[in-house]
């Protein structure tokens, strides 16, 4: 049972003198989390950041460059002034490690000290490539979770484990989607209720396929493509649309099996939907990487997007990155405060508590909001082309179904491509290079539609009853400083004044 913040402690108060391990700190969400903890609770004991690096010095440089050195930390840097670097050195511990290895590759005295100090583990590391190699996706999204759980069991003072998943682990489900964990072996194939998902069998399958491909010289050249195709095939066998969400679902199952079934700390899963730029603090509009919806903005800005697969009446479930982090911190503090102390971890744990960091239920934003604010923004702030002349914005044609988009692509591109190939034969191959290039572009677009279609046309609504209970249980002051209520966001205002300018400034530099 989650206790209220009045009964327990204010969120910043909980993180005082705590040791925290955060995986995925070089990612967009990880950076926001590290910055927020350091800013609101400078008395945090230590934050351990494992990053892929050959040695400690390289890890330190990577954290300095890819995390602490970002514009996001400007307010924190300004607050501490000349003492900023010494503050960071005291609080942040870069580790040369990788979640694909046991204990993340950390050994000896460093491992011993870290496990004694850790009170909170936040697992945010993941590969988010929809079309990732199956072996790679399993290593990070499944085995990474297993290694995190093994490490957690070595931490005698651990109070809470928070795992970052994605709302889209539910695949293409429609209607109201509840905040519930997966059952072991569960699949999304409603047409075959007897089908079971064996995570260990999938791990063995991927290893065996990779071994066979590596042993065959003729197949080695196509190993990367073969492993990608394997992941997609296995995902769709069990009802998931792509390798990313499939392996994230298996990661959740692994977490529940490894930690929640026995004695141990509180276990929480946070499932964000599409994470967008920071809404409020510390830097409104700050964003890294391209979100799914930002392909529309970037294509529109560059004027190389004439059509897109999206139903403007459907909801694009988006949530600002700072709101996701606020929900994560609130969940960690609340569950840790409500759970028994580590020395009393003797009762069987309940399944992990799931929180949907989403907006589709209480403040849905249709794709039309993005489109109309995009038009307004680029009309008011036109892009400048060669010679300093403003680039005239063109309207984008949207297709509300995959069938309509495919038909358009066939008539607009596929048929001309076939005619070009015929002409190439008549010209004795003089147009071969052009044919190959156009063929690759067409195949690329159709592959994107195949992979992103289920998200662009997603018709589910994410329930957020657990999130709302968490919010209502917070102290009044924390509800402001750690706001994650989607009803407080005016989407037109946010996209026009915050998100689109942020994408233009930080992504499309």
TrEMBL record:
Signal peptide: none annotated. Keywords: Lipid biosynthesis, Lipid metabolism, NADP, Oxidoreductase. It comes from the Eukaryota. Residues 413-509 form the Fatty acyl-CoA reductase C-terminal domain. InterPro entries: FAR, FAR_C, FAR_NAD-bd, NAD(P)-bd_dom_sf. One of its GO terms (molecular function) is alcohol-forming long-chain fatty acyl-CoA reductase activity. Transmembrane segments: none annotated. SUPFAM superfamilies: NAD(P)-binding Rossmann-fold domains. Residues 22-328 form the Thioester reductase (TE) domain. Its EC number is 1.2.1.84. GO terms for biological process: lipid metabolic process. It is an enzyme of class 1 (oxidoreductase). It catalyses: a long-chain fatty acyl-CoA + 2 NADPH + 2 H(+) = a long-chain primary fatty alcohol + 2 NADP(+) + CoA. Belongs to the fatty acyl-CoA reductase family. Catalyzes the reduction of fatty acyl-CoA to fatty alcohols. This is Fatty acyl-CoA reductase. It comes from Urochloa decumbens. The lineage of its organism: Eukaryota, Viridiplantae, Streptophyta, Embryophyta, Tracheophyta.
């Amino acid at each position: 049972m989650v206790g209220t913040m009045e009964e327990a402690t204010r969120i910043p108060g909980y993180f005082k003198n705590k040791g925290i391990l955060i995986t995925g700190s070089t990612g967009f969400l990880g950076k926001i989390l590290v910055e927020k903890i350091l800013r609101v609770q400078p008395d945090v004991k230590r934050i351990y950041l494992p990053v892929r690096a050959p040695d400690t010095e390289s890890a330190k440089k990577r954290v300095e460059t890819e995390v602490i050195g970002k514009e996001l930390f400007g307010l924190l840097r300004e607050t501490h002034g000349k003492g900023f670097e010494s503050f960071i050195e005291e609080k942040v511990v870069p580790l040369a490690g990788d979640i694909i290895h046991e204990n993340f590759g950390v050994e000896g005295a460093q491992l011993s000290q870290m496990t004694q100090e850790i009170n909170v583990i936040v697992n945010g590391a993941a590969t988010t490539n929809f079309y990732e190699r199956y072996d790679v996706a399993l290593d990070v999204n499944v085995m990474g979770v297993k290694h995190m759980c093994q490490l957690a069991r070595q931490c005698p003072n651990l109070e809470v484990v928070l795992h970052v998943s994605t709302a889209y682990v539910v695949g293409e489900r429609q209607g109201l989607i509840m905040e519930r964990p997966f059952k072991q072996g569960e699949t999304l194939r409603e047409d075959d209720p007897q089908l079971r998902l064996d995570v260990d069998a999938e791990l063995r399958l991927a290893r065996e396929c990779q071994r066979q491909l590596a042993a065959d010289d003729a197949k080695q050249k196509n190993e990367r493509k073969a492993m990608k195709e394997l992941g997609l095939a296995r995902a769709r066998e069990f009802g998931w649309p792509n390798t990313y969400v499939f392996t994230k679902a298996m990661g959740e199952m692994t977490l529940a099996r490894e930690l929640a079934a026995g004695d141990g700390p509180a276990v929480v899963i946070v499932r964000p939907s599409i994470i967008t730029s920071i809404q409020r603090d510390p830097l409104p509009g700050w964003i890294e990487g391209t979100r799914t919806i930002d392909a529309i903005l970037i294509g529109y800005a560059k004027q190389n997007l004439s059509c897109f697969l999206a139903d403007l009446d459907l909801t694009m479930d988006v949530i600002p990155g700072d709101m996701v982090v606020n929900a994560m911190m609130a969940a960690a503090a609340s569950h840790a405060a409500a759970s028994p102390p580590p020395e009393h971890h003797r009762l069987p744990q309940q399944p992990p508590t799931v929180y949907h960091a989403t907006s589709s239920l209480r403040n849905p934003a249709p794709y039309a909001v993005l489109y109309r604010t995009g038009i307004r923004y680029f009309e008011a702030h036109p892009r400048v082309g060669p010679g300093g002349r403003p680039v005239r914005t063109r309207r984008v044609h949207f297709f509300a179904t995959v069938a309509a988009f495919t038909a358009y692509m066939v008539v607009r591109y596929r048929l001309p491509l076939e005619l070009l190939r015929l002409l190439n034969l008549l010209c004795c191959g003089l147009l071969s290079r052009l044919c190959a290039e156009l063929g690759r572009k067409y195949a690329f677009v159709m592959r994107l539609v195949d992979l992103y279609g289920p998200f662009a046309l997603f018709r589910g609504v994410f329930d957020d009853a657990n999130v709302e209970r968490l919010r209502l249980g917070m102290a009044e002051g924390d509800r402001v400083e750690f706001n994650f209520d989607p009803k407080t966001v005016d989407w037109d205002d946010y996209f026009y004044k915050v998100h689109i300018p942020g994408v233009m400034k930080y992504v499309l530099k």
